[in-house]
Amino acid sequence: MKIFTLTNKILSFLLIIIFWFILSKIYPPVVVPSVSQVWESIKAILLDTTLVKEILTTIIRLFIGFSFGLVFSIVFSLIITHSKFLGDIFYPIIEFLQVVPPISWLILAILWLGLNGKPAILIVSISIFCIMTISLVNSINNIDKKLLEVADVFHLTKFKKWKYIIVPSLYPAFETALIVCLGTGVKLVVMAEVLTIDSGIGGQITNARINIETEMVIAWSVIIVGIYFILGGIVK
Question: What family is it from (predicted)?
Fold first, then answer.
């Protein structure tokens, strides 16, 4: 099964390369640069220590925002599910925050924090917090009540309930939400950098846009995707 899945991924990658190659023959390089041009740009980026530092800057911002959002989501999820009164008050607020467009948060963050790396961290934190909290609250509320009743019959301690029932029940939804949050976080942190600051991957994409270096824009985009898959592999 793993070999079959790997084969499918390789075929998908080859289809993208073939489609890209065809488009590069139809359109000029400024519109669709060749695969070789982008590959050379990727190598140039990864061999330049200054540009590697920009990649690390983005990853650090992502990590800080992701960590804040994740920790607060876990705390709030436990509070909301423990108290129906608090849940009825705070859950609608979190749903409201979830619907607010990221660009609105970014503009507010710029007004509050200025044109620096902090707005990127803030919008990642808010987005991760909302997604994870909603996912965890729904997962906790949907835990099989019969399992908890059986645990009470056998007088299991709270620790054992969490270890053998609650955590295993939450893990699948938690892992899925974590992957979704990771993808969302990567996109948001780069978007915020593009619009607020000249450092990080977003800042480099802005520079490439100003200089009309399409191959560099695509190269940075490929690196962003690579970061997502590497971090996603670590999370899994």
Answer: Belongs to the binding-protein-dependent transport system permease family.
Rg, C-alpha atoms of the chain: 22
From 1.25.40.10, 1.10.10.10, 1.10.3720.10, 3.40.50.2300, which CATH number describes the 34-235 domain? 1.10.3720.10
Angle, vertex CA 95, rays to CA 91 and CA 101, nearest 5: 155
Nearest CA to 58 out of 194, 233, 222 is that of 194
Model pLDDT for residues 45-82, shown as the tens digit of each residue: 999 999 999 999 999 999 999 999 999 999 999 888 88
CA–CA distance from 189 to each of 42, 106, 182 (Å)? 20, 10, 11
What's the pLDDT tens digit per position in 2-18?
A: 444 667 778 888 898 89
